[in-house]
Amino acid sequence: MFCYQCQETAKGTGCTIKGVCGKTENVSNLQDLLIYTLKGIAIYAVQARERYLVRKDVEKFIMESLFSTITNANFDRSRFVERIQAGLKLREDLKQAVVRVGGTIPADLHDAATWTAPAEEFEKKASFVGILSTENEDVRSLRELLIYGLKGMAAYAEHAYTLEHQESGIFAFIEKALVATLDDTLEAGDLVALVLEAGKYGVDVMALLDKANTTTYGNPELTKVNIGVRNNPAILISGHDLKDLEELLIQTQGTGVDVYTHGEMLPAHYYPAFKKYDNFVGNYGNAWYKQDKEFDSFNGPVFLTTNCLVPPKESYKDRIYTTGVVGFEGVKHIPDRADGKAKDFSALIAHAKSCPAPTEIETGEIVGGFAHNQVMALADKVVDAVKSGAIKRFFVMAGCDGRMKSRDYYTDFAKALPQDTVILTAGCAKYKYNKLNLGDIGGIPRVLDAGQCNDSYSLAVIALKLKEVFGLDDINQLPISYNIAWYEQKAVIVLLALLHLGVKNIHLGPTLPGFLSPNVVKVLVENFGIAGISTVEDDVKMFMA
Ligand code: FS2
Ligand code: SF4
To answer: Which cofactor does it need (predicted)?
Structure first.
């Protein structure tokens, strides 16, 4: 195996024996083969599109497959074997469809579009098509940067899709980019251009998801979220899928079972639509990597709608339920919606009733809900505070949290920031500073949480709006600094989206991606001023200078 797609990759260079995340060698290899299979499907999908043949089943398959390979989503070998088999079948079906609409199949097609093998030979095949099969270090780096951007894009597209929002242009780009990663005639410059184009679609997909979420559930609003517990049996829901949450809330009504959020599901509390459920009690715990302790003390069933799942401990494994693209061998899985009906949570609810109430680990409240609409409602106050000098600088500290000790930097950085600064956050990165009680500036909290990682889009909308209000030509003239923490591939598409919007001098930590070759880093530094982090003291000084 060779995987270097996340921030915690072994030695900062690549997991080669087993993933630091817990991914096994065979799952890693099968994920590589699945990506290769998608590239083959994309070859025909591009041809089909040229002939105005748009196959919704192909778009959905590519989207879900990319999403399933994201860090901490699916560890189940059999699910990848089935997906590759289904992919090969779909590829052949699509090929026939292309022929039917008058397409001709070239004789010299790439192996990705023609290979086939029985399941027993998948791993052998995988050993020829993995990341290291691209020899040139820079081309490999750019191809993988593009693929990771696509994985993040696919994750967001999937959430929007679930809420019946989709855009063909996004799928067309995904197909085009997948094919480009097979093209040996493309040079580094061509791939850089594609990576930057991915940023444009990153903005589009986050805007689409924002529209899907806000038109379905209302605009997030200033909300106090309880972090304590009640004395009822309960279900803990984690991940990013709001539709799963909605159906769970509907089905738990009147059952005596409470519902709490964990990790990235916390921002669900900010949406008006979920406030009517009186059993939607609060948020339990912190970011994903603390689940080994927090799922234990929660006592009831835990429902993972998307990443981040950590290989479960035996002590609570029988209480874990997955759904959608998430999976782990030996863990119960809630099947997808069929025939327009909701998912069936009866087993989960019955399980909860047999469990004790959660053990309290914290008490109090946290404040959030500062997505673009809420911040714009406070715009006058914010603009006045900037004009009067009460707010000197904003810090976008969006992204991910993770296990590494070096991430304490973000807590220390938040504490060390001058009192006249405001943190704009989104994603599970927030847990490093959302319980610090950093106070407020004239009623504006010093930590403004917009929501999940995709709500980084809100932070960009806010920046663009402020640029307009202050009559500036360039987003970089605003008193906003970017100190972003990354972990998995959704952070990659968020980063590319920010680059597309023209944001410069983004600092990325706790370490720069292992998949960036020195030359690719050089391009990012020279063109966009991307940099890493150093010490809290030096960085605060540098940002405030
Ligand atoms: Fe956090 Fe994990 Fe949101 Fe990432 S819960 S690192 O998937 O997407 O952020
Ligand atoms: Fe390693 Fe991250 Fe890949 Fe897991 S996802 S195998 S930790 S690089």
So the answer is: [4Fe-4S] cluster; hybrid [4Fe-2O-2S] cluster
Q: Is 490 in the pocket of ligand 1 (CB under 6 A)?
A: yes
DSSP assignment letter at 124: H
φ, ψ of residue 519 in degrees (nearest 5): -70, -35
- Ligand 2 pocket test, pick from 23, 69, 72, 307 with the greatest ligand atom count within 8 Å of Cβ, gives 23
d(CA 402, CA 21): 11
Counting atoms of ligand 2 from 1, which one is nearest the CA of 9? Answer: 8
**Atom 3, ligand 1: residue with shortest CA distance:** 453
Residue 458 has a pLDDT of 96
Nearest to 377 by CA among 286, 443, 472, 279: 443
Query: Does the annotation list 137 as a binding residue?
Result: no
Regarding an ipTM greater than 0.95, the answer is yes
What is the rounded CA–CA span in Å between residue 215 and residue 457? 16
Q: How confident is the model at residue 388, as a pLDDT?
A: 97
Ligand 2 close to Cβ of residue 285 (< 6 A): no
Count how many residues are written for the chain.
545
Ligand 2 in reach of 509 Cβ (< 6 A): no
Torsion from C-alpha of 182, 187, 192, 197, nearest 10 degrees: -60
* CB contact at 8 A, 429 and 485: yes
**pLDDT value for 478:** 97
Residues 282/260, Cβ–Cβ less than 8 Å: yes
The widest CA-to-CA distance across the chain, in whole angstroms, is 69
Quote the pLDDT of residue 127: 94
| % of the chain beyond a pLDDT of 90 | 100
pLDDT of residue 463: 95
- pLDDT digits 0-9 by tens, 55-87: 999 999 999 999 999 999 999 999 999 999 999
Ligand nearest to the CA of 3: 2
Which residue from 234, 264, 245 is spatially nearest to 342, judged by alpha carbons? 245
* Ligand 1 pocket, residue 288 CB under 6 Å: yes
The number of the ligand 1 atom at minimal distance from the alpha carbon of 238 is 5
Flag residues of the chain having pLDDT under 70: none
Beta bridge partners of 234: 258
Is the distance from the beta carbon of residue 21 to the nearest atom of ligand 2 less than 6 Å? yes
pLDDT given at position 65: 99
